[in-house]
Amino acid sequence: MQTDPTEMRLRSLMLASLDGDAAAYRSLLAELGRHLRPYFTRRLTPAFAAHAEDLVQETLLAIHARRLTYDRNRPFTAWLHAVAHHKFVDHVRRQSIRLTVPLEDDAPIIAHDDSADALARRDLNVVLETVPARTSDLIYRTKVDGASVAEAAAAHGMTETAAKVSIHRGLKALAMRFAGGPK
Fold first, then answer.
1. Are the CB atoms for 153 and 142 separated by under 8 Å?
2. Residue pair 19/11 in contact by the 8 Å Cβ criterion
3. 59 CB-near residues (< 8 Å, 6+ apart)
4. Strand, helix or coil for residue 125
5. What is the rounded end-to-end Cα distance, in angstroms, of the chain?
6. Domain spanning 5-96, CATH class
7. CATH class belonging to 115-178
8. Fewer Cβ atoms within 10 A, N terminus or C terminus of the chain?
9. Which segment of 54-68, 77-91, 119-133, 145-159 scores lowest on mean pLDDT?
10. Where is the RNA polymerase sigma-70 region domain (predicted)?
11. The pTM is what?
């Protein structure tokens, strides 16, 4: 079986660099850069062709960081292409997230629809009318307005425990009524 000359050259440079040969490592990185540029350029759309050099640098950094994971008994170019492929996939995933408008800039673009809020408030009021007025107000203050049970109880001159019991019973009655339970 004949071995590819590029594989032999790159593999020997990689093995020498793993053994501490700094000159071989510099040569390896330079040659990998020349090998990876066309690899990425062929895979990128013309709109993203300028990203080829970034992908080359990211791949070279990944090879540097993970060079000790290379299995000396395996072909080097297969390992190299796996690393390059992963960097390319990462790039594609990053690019699939399209530009967005910052939230603070969305006011001129998107009008706020208050109709859903108004309908929800009306529906909530209709539902709360089915329980006693004090219980309804306690539920509204604690579950909608965010008041504490102590604050809601104080507004009605009740103890906190009595307010908790009233809220619990009111919610239970609402759940039974609107969940199809006994009326």
1. no
2. no
3. 32, 36, 83, 84, 87
4. helix
5. 84
6. mainly alpha
7. mainly alpha
8. N
9. 119-133
10. 42-96
11. 0.51
